Amino acid sequence: MPHMIALSAAAETTHHLQPLISDLGLILMTAGIAVLLFRRLKQPLVLGYLIAGFLAGNHFDFFPSITDMKSVEVWAEIGVIFLLFSLGLEFSFKKLMKVGGTSSVTAITQIMFMTIIGYCVGQWMGWGKMDSIFLGATLSISSTTIIIRAFDELGVKGKKFVGIVFGALIVEDIVAILMLVLLSTIAVSDQVSGTALLQSVLKLIFFLIIWFLGGIFIIPTIFKKAKHLLTDEMLLIISLALCLMMVIFASNVGFSPALGAFIMGSIIAETTMAEKIEHLIQPVKDFFGAVFFVSVGMLINPVTLVNYALPVAIITLLTIFGKAFSSSIGALISGQPLKQSVQTGMSLAQIGEFSFIIATLGMTLKVTSDFLYPIIVAVSAITTFTTPFLIKYSERFAFFLESKMPKKWVKNINRYSVNAQAIKSVSTWQIVLRSSITQIILHTIIITAIILLSSKFVAPLVADTRFGNTLAALLTLVAIAPFLWALSLRRVKVDEVEALWEERKYRGALLMLILIRMSLGLFFVGFLLNIFFSPLVAFVALIIAIGAYQIFPKKLNEQYHKIENHFLKNFNDRENKKIDRRYANLMPWDGHMSFFEIKKESNLVGQTLQELKIREQLGINIAYIKRGEVTIPIPTKTERLFPGDEICVIGTDAQIAEFTKFLTQNETEPPAKVEETDIVLRQLEVSQDEFIQKSIGQFRAKTDGMVVGIERNGNRILNPESSLILEKNDILWVVGDKKKMNALLAAK
User: What are phi and psi of 460, to 5 degrees?
Assistant: First the structure.
């Protein structure tokens, strides 16, 4: 009887699982066919997944179809989480901090222009307000996946504009995250409220900083402590566990799961394990990326596409021309020459994965119309096709544009570019002010977070004890003490402050900064004590706390610096393992750094730099050679190249292009058809007339076999000389190809 009950339960479970599993099977089968077909056609896989999903949807009878749309949506959501986790691994906040003004200005100009123009076009076509807002948002974010693929295929990764494009994509990624939060707020409130939006932005910034600081402080430390225990399997499991924990955390504080996955990816990207984790996650990313994009294709209704063919055409043209124009203008404003600006603009003229996620958000929250999603997907599919062509012909178009523009305009653009790229001096007051504001913001957020966490988790634990409030307040005060000291009393930019103090006009401003910082410190102590005690008790405790801070400044200083150094060590660990790339930005000269790998099949392997004469012939300078974990900076002329070496070279676009061609020309092409050889040892009697009275050398020339031994008249001759003459009835031990040996024996 229990056995029957167990079987019944298993059958019930299987019944529930069936649509989920069968639909996953269909999604993967569809994705597999798409991969094979689009690899053959040399088209982006993303496009293949979309089309395959579209054909496998419920709208066509001649293909197997999904049984339950709900299960597809589940797989799509899981796909989004892992896709954004892998995007986060490629992103990192440090990259964002290092993004130059050029990329930032380009990205922000493009985003603002496309958001506004997208909204206006939506309104012009008679769409609702929410549809128009979501249209503007989806059109403003370019596709990292499609651009990287196109750059790889066209072999332009070494060119100067590529760095600007990648920088712009990093800024767009973080803006897309911000958009997800803002659009969620707008959708929930159903109106554009300035106060609600500001609250959402501040909440996002607060949590981003806390997650980032906390993540960098804890996660690299865990990885380092457990380094000897971390197998590939363990590392994969821990990475995915951290990702899903952050997803849960983000959902609990009111953000989308996708945001949590992205943030955890960007935190792990700062660790020394980042490359290894990225490699391990790759199959998971590919798997769930395929699931997501096929699911996106399944949600497209062909009837909607037919009915909205004109809007699709209008929005496609708007995307291509609008993004190309606005990105080019942004790059020009930032001080880039005309050529690089046009190349940047035409590279960013498409929409992709983040656009799908934003459109999915609108569908999930049920604030957008059914037609918006398939339109966005259709526009993405078309712009995926056009992107490689736009990038390929961008340089020619730039030269064409330059030839048609008035000479005066070209001259003014060049002059503006040179002036904008010149290094601008930053005043001492700006340095001090920036450091002070950063100090205030960071420590304010940390202290606020600790107080809020304490009131929510620590206080309830000790609430039932006699001195519960006092204990909770004391523990919290100890936790925030180093940060309070840093906020109120820590000296920043000592030399610069002393220089400003000498100038009397800055003394008032400096004293005001000190007063603001001290007031904030007092406010937080009072705020903390007020949570746990009455105002009177809080005031008395405040006086005591101030006294304690005055008595133990050295101890607090030591404690803070210990925390700060630990954070900075974790933060810079990954970078410290790499070469210093301070010279990566050689403005206004058109020279820049590019990275190449020496292939195993290359003819350059084993040659010295002196023999290769790369500098003399191509004008290229090698900055360093990275060989495994070893980096050889500024290599000498006697240094040799080895297989797998990563070399960093400095040159202009034209020089880099010549060097790329030089590397390609020196790669040995493998034969089209490689025949497998099976080497065997065979015993052979000399009975054929063609071998009698012939030397061993002649035997080898005819048979490609190596004679390792001869038995003659009961005597054995090991490793005979090639000049030895073979006699009739000699027994030979021959090493050679199995097929040829068998042929010899058969002939005998």
Answer: -60, -30
Could you report the per-residue pLDDT of 24-69, keeping only the tens digit for each?
A: 787 788 888 888 888 787 777 777 887 888 777 776 666 666 666 6
3-state class of 731 per DSSP?
strand
Q: Do residues 27 and 295 lie in contact, with contact meaning Cβ atoms separated by under 8 Å?
A: yes
Cα–Cα nearest to 729, from 689, 696, 698? 689
Spatial strand order in the sheet of 646-651: 592-597, 646-651, 621-627, 630-633
Q: What is the distance between the alpha carbons of residues 372 and 368, in angstroms, rounded to a whole number?
A: 7
List the one residue out of 644, 568, 651, 637 whose CA is nearest residue 605: 644
Q: What is the model's pTM?
A: 0.67
Within 10 Å of residue 192's Cβ, how many Cβ atoms? 13
The CA radius of gyration of the chain, in Å to the nearest whole number, is: 34
Q: Are 525 and 537 in contact (CB under 8 A)?
A: no
d(CA 420, CA 411): 14
For residues 488 and 517, the answer to whether their CB atoms sit within 8 Å is: yes
Q: What is the pLDDT of residues 61-85, one digit of tens each?
A: 666 666 666 777 777 788 888 888 8
% of the chain with per-residue pLDDT over 90:
3
CA dist 590 and 160 (Å) reads: 7
Tokens matching residue 172: 């767009």
In 10 A of CB 550, how many CB atoms? 9
Reported as half-sphere exposure (CB side, CA atoms, 13 A), residue 166 has a value of: 18
Tokens for 444, please give them: 């304010």
Average pLDDT of the chain to the nearest whole number = 77
How many other C-beta atoms are found inside a 10 Å radius of the C-beta of residue 736? 21
Helix axis angle, 338-347 to 160-189, nearest 10° = 50
On whether the CB atoms of residues 385 and 47 are closer than 8 A, the answer is: yes
- Residue 694 and residue 375: Cα distance in Å, rounded? 81
How does 661-684 read in b/e, with b if 16+ C-beta sit within 10 Å?
eebeebeeeeeeeeeeeeeeebeb
| Paired tokens of 742 | 């068998």
Coil, helix or strand for 602? Answer: strand
Residue 664 and residue 660: Cα distance in Å, rounded?
Answer: 6
141 contacts 355 by C-beta, under 8 angstroms: yes
Helix (H, G, I), strand (E, B) or coil at 718: strand
What pLDDT is recorded for position 748?
A: 55
d(CA 694, CA 617): 53
* Cα separation, 170 vs 162, whole angstroms: 13
